[in-house]
Amino acid sequence: MLKIRLLRTGAKKQPSYRIVVANSRSPRDGRFIERVGTYMPLLAKDDANRTRLNEERIRYWLSKGAQPTDRIARLLGHASILPKPTFTKGVNKARKKAEEAAKAAAEAAAKAEGGAPAQA
Fold first, then answer.
1. What are the sequence ranges of the domains in the chain?
2. For the chain, how long is the longest CA-to-CA vector?
3. b/e for 13-44, b at 16 or more Cβ within 10 A?
């Protein structure tokens, strides 16, 4: 299976990444098939050199079945190559936990007052 993913380069605490097409079983910084872009997260978000993509080759590899990683999918969404992904797994989990805690607190307060539980 092919993946479009990041290959880390750069010095300690100064990361820069190459965007590569690689076999999913290859190590992160190991063998890859083709380099299709770069990503430099330390540059300002509006800097033109922050993300450089070879759109033609990325579209080619996507047509061949390559799967982008989460971070690459987000970068491709910003570049309008793919639709912007929505990542809600962690957000929904935290929200649900907070809602349950608030509901439990409201029920405990209602029992302490001796009334019926409040509707959320």
1. 2-78, 88-120
2. 68
3. eeebbbbbbbeeeeeeeeebebebbbbbeeee
